[in-house]
Amino acid sequence: MKRELFLNSLEVVFFFTKFVYDIVDKYIRTEGEEPHPHHPKKNHFIFTSMSCLFCKIVAKEIPCEMVFENEYVCAFLDIGPVSEGHTLIVPKIHAENLSQGTEEESRELMAVVHMLAPKILKAIGADGYNLGMNQGECAGQEVMHTHLHIMPRKVGMMRTFTKLRPTKEELATSAQKIRSTLESV
Q1: Is the pLDDT reported for residue 52 higher than 50?
Q2: pTM of structure
Q3: Sign of CA pseudo-dihedral 53, 44, 116, 160
Q4: Active-site amino acid positions
């Protein structure tokens, strides 16, 4: 009896999920809209988590100090940085970790790091950087959405991962330095 009830419940969940996907595909995706390039049969809308902090930042529901954005990735300053200019590179499609995303999304993350890191260093006056990713709570991942950290470092600076508490004004100033450096190229 319990097993049959459980299986019936699963059937209802699967039916409802398919129903929601069909509605999204039919009514939310606008006529002629191209599907997301990494998921040609799926709408980007489906690949967000409404409870995810980074998905809300990507959707512009939560403000941030955005320094770079393209079709696939956002880069914004960490509000608990370990150094000035500490930037998060975040894919726009929700995946809890790198393994859940596509290989193309991983390449795009690294392409943005490759382009952005030297500009952050120049803007902040740093000499090097740590590139970090925490995958899973046991590794220190606090937001369950794939992201990379670019943490600028200066010669003579103690390498620590203790979070700083900059003011909104300090974050805005750092972000403006980075945006200005990007615009000058």
Answers
A1: yes
A2: 0.75
A3: positive
A4: 147
Q: How many CB atoms lie within 10 A of CB 96?
A: 16
Write the single-letter amino acid at 148.
Answer: L
Q: What is the pLDDT of residue 51?
A: 86
* Per-residue pLDDT, 16: 42
Task: For residues 54 and 109, give the distance between their C-alpha atoms in angstroms, rounded to a whole number.
Answer: 15
pLDDT at position 184 is: 87
Which residues have C-beta within 8 Å of that of residue 21, sequence separation ≥ 6? 46
In sequence order, what are the residues at sequence separation of 6 or more whose Cβ sits closer than 8 angstroms to the Cβ of residue 153? 83, 126, 127, 128, 129, 130, 159
Alpha helices in the chain (DSSP H): 2-23, 53-58, 103-124, 168-183
Residue 38 phi/psi, 5-degree rounding, is -85, -15
Alpha-carbon gap, residue 35 to 66, rounded angstroms: 25
Question: For the chain, what percent of residues have pLDDT higher than 90?
Answer: 68
Of 178, 183, 167, 21, nearest to 81 by C-alpha is 167
